[in-house]
Amino acid sequence: MGLPRWNFSDKTERVIRIVTLTIVGFILAYEKFYGSSTTQYAAMYLCVFALVATILTNAVQQRYFTYVMEYAQAFRIVAILMTAAFFIIWLLTTYERLTLPAPPSHLIFNL
Predict the structure, then answer these.
(1) Residue 66: its pLDDT value, please?
(2) What residues does each domain of the chain span?
(3) What is the pTM of this model?
């Protein structure tokens, strides 16, 4: 029984890993140049969980987590869910930041 196993081929897992980490890289680069603190936190958490989700491949689980593969698979599933959740949060906060009008100049405190 146990948790469902994803038996992707090594090539498929490599493609998924490359695409995921490329998207995360673009998001972090965007946040470096155009981001604000509201969107940068979601992007940082997205990066952390995406790294865990992409590193725990089936080959890594079989080699290093032989006796606790179900726990490693559960950890990978949680990391994938958290990656998806923080990606959605980042999309929503970025959309909100880009669509909100700028505050009036008399409300901005300048030193």
Answers:
(1) 83
(2) 10-97
(3) 0.80
